[in-house]
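in:
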């Protein structure tokens, strides 16, 4: 497969190179611009030089050169730039593979993730899992470092959290205490979200609503999305023990913040 490195928006000037690589380590890349409420649309690809269960230990150079020689040759072309990365110098030793990546763990390869943009004027969440890539087939989607993520093993758990976080109640709280446009994982420290329980009908309903919202958003059915979000707000209010009056006041306050 022929790839070309992205140079758009890079902090340093890097040569644009096209080369053939093996597809084994290529994944669809989800960037901040690719995430909306109830929607993810990967727009690029990434080489992940680590395997599940290896944590920060990248594939050894000997193994890479032997098993994936084209990929290794492509990476070798950028060895100087890769070794000069601040993350590499800070977290890795010179003897570690020069293509080692920080912020890689089991969560990177989780089958389902709730994601939101770290830098954003509005709190928008979505569930991402795998996608049918045009060139790679069915592949897991990898969020980049500008996205916050919560990993899950089951779709129900992911959609339940996404539903709660996308509710007007959660969005109002986040917008009232965040500084500037930075929305990190502290969201989960400030929101009292109970763990998903499949035996809880309310939790299951919220999960279903998120799935429906993703489908309606993909179909560009704005009216249906609005209906689902209204029901999501109602169930989120029930989850947190709020009255209809309190819910309405929060919705009105959220509208004023926009």
């Amino acid at each position: 497969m022929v790839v070309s490195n992205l140079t758009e928006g890079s902090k340093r000037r890097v040569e644009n190179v096209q080369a053939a690589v093996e597809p084994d380590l290529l994944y669809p890349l989800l960037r901040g611009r690719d995430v909306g409420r109830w929607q993810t649309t990967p727009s690029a690809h990434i080489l992940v030089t680590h395997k599940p269960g290896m944590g920060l230990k990248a594939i050894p150079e000997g193994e890479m050169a032997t098993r994936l020689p084209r990929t290794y040759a492509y990476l070798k072309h950028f060895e100087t730039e890769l070794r000069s990365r601040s993350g590499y110098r800070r977290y890795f030793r010179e003897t570690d593979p020069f293509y080692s990546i920080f912020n890689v763990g089991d969560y990177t390869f989780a089958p389902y993730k709730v994601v939101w943009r770290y830098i954003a004027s509005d709190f928008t969440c979505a569930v991402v899992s795998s996608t049918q890539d045009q060139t790679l087939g069915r592949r897991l989607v990898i969020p980049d470092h500008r996205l916050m993520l919560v990993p899950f093993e089951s779709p129900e758990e992911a959609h339940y959290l996404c539903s709660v976080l996308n509710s007007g109640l959660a969005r109002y709280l986040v917008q009232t205490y965040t500084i500037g446009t930075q929305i990190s994982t502290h969201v989960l420290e400030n929101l009292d979200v109970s763990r998903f329980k499949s035996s809880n009908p309310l939790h299951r309903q919220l999960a279903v609503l998120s799935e429906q919202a993703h489908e309606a958003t993909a179909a560009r059915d704005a009216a249906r999305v609005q209906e689902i979000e209204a029901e999501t707000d109602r169930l989120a209010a029930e989850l947190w023990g709020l009255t209809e009056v309190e819910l309405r006041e929060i919705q009105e306050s959220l509208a004023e913040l926009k």
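note: The radius of gyration is 21 Å.
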